[in-house]
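haha ok so turns out i had the wrong file open the whole time. this is the CORRECT one, sorry everyone. sequence first:
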Amino acid sequence: MGEGRGVGAVRAEWTKLRTLHSTWWLLLALIALTVLAGAASTASLTAGDCPVPADCHEDTVKLSLTGVWLGQGAVVVLAVLTMSGEYGTGTIRTTLTTEPVRLRILAAKAAVLCALTAAASTVGVLGSLLAGRLLLSADGFAAPTLTEGPTLRAAAGTVLYLTLTALIGLGAATALRDTATAVTSVLALFYAFPLLAGLLADPDWQANARRAAPATAGLAIQATTDLDRLPIGPWAGIAVLAGYAVAALVTGGVLLRVRDA
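then structure:
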């Protein structure tokens, strides 16, 4: 019976999200921003900057995926609206009445949100790598290819990064309930935290801050060269981001049970 209710909750959340025009616009924005910004960054690297491309040691995979810095903004807004939108319209009362198990609501929203985010992220990542391959090959640089282990890890890890980002946004929206407050808080976490870390004068404090910042830690997964120079390893960085996602969801889930009982 519980399994059937779980499937029903997922179907209900899927119906809600797919019938909102904002969902598809934000997913399209995720893809477009990721590909276009990545292509712009890749196109800025020319033979004039490096007369012998083979000697540049440029991380072309990471460069091709630079657009994720912008694409994650669309993910955050989509994730927040998945929960806060219902509080804003008042339809959350119907949802809570229909489904008495509060955590099942959160789990269903998380499942649908993760599926949509992962699908759109995959398109955006593959598009970025394809654009990077075309642009870099024209200038004689080593073009990224998914047949190489580090590139495949960077691509899959970037999809995972964006999916975990969505869960952080969902958890924050569940805890805060207000769209503007949740969006501002999560965007500050992803954009302002790394900037503040870069302003620290002490190198050790700066390195520790970058290891703790969800964006810089999580995006270490994109690096395919000079891994020993990273403030944190690729998978360790993803683990830090996953920790933020778990903390956000647990906090949101506890408040959802207590406050909306």
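The two ends are 22 Å apart (CA to CA).
again sry for the mixup
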